Write the structure tokens for this entry.
Amino acid sequence: MNVTAQLDPLTLILLVIILVSLIQVATTYFMRRREKPEPQFIYRRVVECTSTGERRVEDFQVGDFVGKIVGVCINGGKLIIRAIYAEPAQRK
Amino acid sequence: MLEVLLGNAGDIWSQILTLIITIVIILNFMTDLPQRAQTARYSKSAAQRLTQLEALVTECKRRTARFLSRLGAPNSFDMVEEFSENFFMIDPVSVEPVDIIRRLDHIIKTQERNAEAYVEAKLPGVSKAVRKNAVVTLAITGALHTVYKIMRHYYLIGRKYDNWVLLMQLSMILPQIIKELTPYVKAVDVIMQGIPIGDGVGPLVASMLLGFADRREIVEDTVVGVTEVDGRRVYVIKAAGPGANVGKPGKAVAKVAEELKCSIARIITVDAALKLEGEDTGSVAEGAGAAIGDPGPEKIEIERTAVKCGAPLDAVIVKMSNEEAITAMRKEIAEAARRAYEQVLSIIRNRTKPGDNVVVVGVGNSLGVW
């Protein structure tokens, strides 16, 4: 039994149009880009000892700025903030 | 089943389909129904996007108001609204270009002073650095407010005149505008905390060069310090920090040149530059010219001074996206500052002689950088 043989051309065209439309809608839905989650940042400061050149990275504190002296270190050196930057927070 | 359903109904189906197709053709090609449908669709889409934009602007205003309130401003939200509606700037006449830079400079200065005076009156007790931060956050909020108003204007015009092309354009451009404006809202938080932004890479390099050297204010909001690199006297210019401030680097260069009677071997500008999509953040490049992105008055001053003194003009740039330029400085950019610093030292050592005077300008916002 051949079903298509009993369908007239116009019905066939209608079925094809419906099928194509459904494929298009499905494709558009699945192709839609998912929004990436906003990256979270943490703020760091790089503190350097002027006498030894030793550097360490610490958490930023409000009131910090590059060039600020935050303490003293060995041999009469000063602890100075050399850089402040943001880095992505580690995801748990 | 299909056979039962359609077995003897082929003729009726054919007639119905022929009728439907005929109606569709008539409606599609002989009426403006498709345009009206598109207008409705794009209008709805534009309205949704506009609502998102409004929410973004409101959020920015809320954060700015909270910051101002913490600084002691009474009715901080009213202050934000008042600032947003005022302090616009009208471009000078450009059909007559004579003197346009001086006129533009004058208007910019007037606008900046008015804004600062307004904030000073509202926040009398705060330090200059914090006041600068307040002015910048208000300026950002004002800019977002203006963008929203312009978009709303075009949306209402599109609706008023059933201009579906305008509504379609709005519906398509608004997602991009929202994405581009979102970082400005984040920038408000960063400015409130005084964290250096990507655009501060120029002042950061200048700060590295200066170290603990004495600095003096050479022109309004701009400092100069002198340091020595292998026998060369290096005049380092940057905006006065650590408040949010870009200073007047062009006028500072002109003033230094005047003080040195044009005895300058080289002028080097260091600035953040917008990268092209696909380029790496923090890549350092070198070229010729004045690396500075002001509306004109400062850049032209550097160029004129370089020409007047016959000093070659070098540009060292650190590439980053617009978002990275206005939000907290990323680690890659802070590391790139070190490479840009080495590049500047290399230029000084290789292209000037001991005893020469060299001018280095760290162009950009000095937020969080002394």
Summary: Residues 56 and 182 of chain B are 7 Å apart (CA to CA). The radius of gyration of chain B is 28 Å. Chain B has a mean pLDDT of 92.
